[in-house]
Amino acid sequence: xxxxxxxxxxxxxxxxxxxxxxxxxxxxxxxxxxxxxxxxxxxxxxxxxxxxxxxxxxxxxxxxxxxxxxxxxxxxxxxxxxxxxxxxxxxxxxxxxxxxxxxxxxxxxxxxxxxxxxxxxxxxxxxxxxxxxxxxxxxxxxxxxxxxxxxxxxxxxxxxxxxxxxxxxxxxxxxxxxxxxxxxxxxxxxxxxxxxxxxxxxxxxxxxxxxxxxxxxxxxxxxxxxxxxxxxxxxxxxxxxxxxxxxxxxxxxxxxxxxxxxxxxxxxxxxxxxxxxxxxxxxxxxxxxxxxxxxxxxxxxxxxxxxxxxxxxxxxxxxxxxxxxxxxxxxxxxxxxxxxxxxxxxxxxxxxxxxxxxxxxxxxxx
Length: 366
Prior knowledge:
The strands form three sheets. The chain has a six-stranded mixed sheet with strand order 7-8-6-11-12-13, sandwiched between helices. A five-stranded antiparallel sheet has the order 2-1-5-4-3. It is elongated, with a radius of gyration of 28 Å. Residues 1-23, 97-115 and 347-366 have low confidence and may be disordered. It contains eleven helices and 13 strands. The protein folds into two domains: 23-172, GAF domain (Beta-Lactamase), CATH 3.30.450.40; 185-358, Reverse transcriptase/Diguanylate cyclase domain (Alpha-Beta Plaits). By secondary structure, the protein is of the alpha+beta class. It starts with 25 loop residues before the first helix and ends in a 12-residue tail after the last strand.
């Protein structure tokens, strides 16, 4: 695809404010305002910032008639800028440090030329969320930066990004358990239902959907002996360890109390057991200190169930994983168990089949 033709940005009159245009600009501004309105409407259906950014790819080339452009958002870590949108001959990001970039230009000097591009801060209420880069020739940079067309579009983009980030933050608060940082039970059940529908659509039957039910061994006794503050420390540490162990596509949640659930999309039964053992051993390796005193080792029991082998609904899969967890507890704790289809049909049994590579009883456990 050829890059869009470069049009000269139309400057404001000398001495005029950023919002004033010369008479010949009225029809041009009217067209641009219509495009901005279409852009804003397109973003209204976006539920998250990620969805909104996909719509940026569709609309920004029409809003900026340059040879290319890109949007970079600030993030913690290195590098400080992440490209989230690009079109045409997208400019490379500025080479300055994140701290210097956040201090980009005051309103009377709204851009910076670098490597054949103009860089404009995406700023709302004094907070710079990112940079918009527009590829242009050096001779056109000043006109582009002083254009009311550019100023209005940059302001709209910054506002939309700020709004979406705020929505994402509120949504995160509503679906996260505050103690562990994991997803809460409501989000788990919604996600498990969604992943089940997705698993049904998959044609590959060798990979299914795994569910791990995890319970802290002797947690009530631990709380009685060491206090609820130490117990909360344990739960928070397990949450942190789970976030390190699971894949990006997995869904780790606090199910309630000292119980956790991990959903494993697109795994085989054998692989689900391997992942369960990784969780068990990761928790066993924890070494925690509370008020300067070391806490005793903590272990978990893990029950595993699979779609389509052990259930085809949220309720049946969680029930099957709970059957397996009960078996792991009954047989000594600190181990992984997977329920079998035969045992699920036997209503009088709640035992699971031992996962051969997962049985490592913790010394001293009941």
